[in-house]
């Protein structure tokens, strides 16, 4: 895993969130992007660091919303 790869995953997650009108949980992101859970979390971290998403802990999952 390298920075370039994580950036690609972040792009896939951003596109999935955009297509879903802004909010998905991790389960939905895995399904939409075909990424593994650890890859989704790495992408979420990238996007959160850039200030492009908000992350909220839900009852059984984590909700991710575009800013």
TrEMBL record:
- InterPro entries listed in its UniProt record: DUF2582, WH-like_DNA-bd_sf
Organism superkingdom: Bacteria
Which Pfam families does this one have? DUF2582
Descriptive protein name: Winged helix-turn-helix domain-containing protein
Q: Give the source species.
A: Sodaliphilus pleomorphus
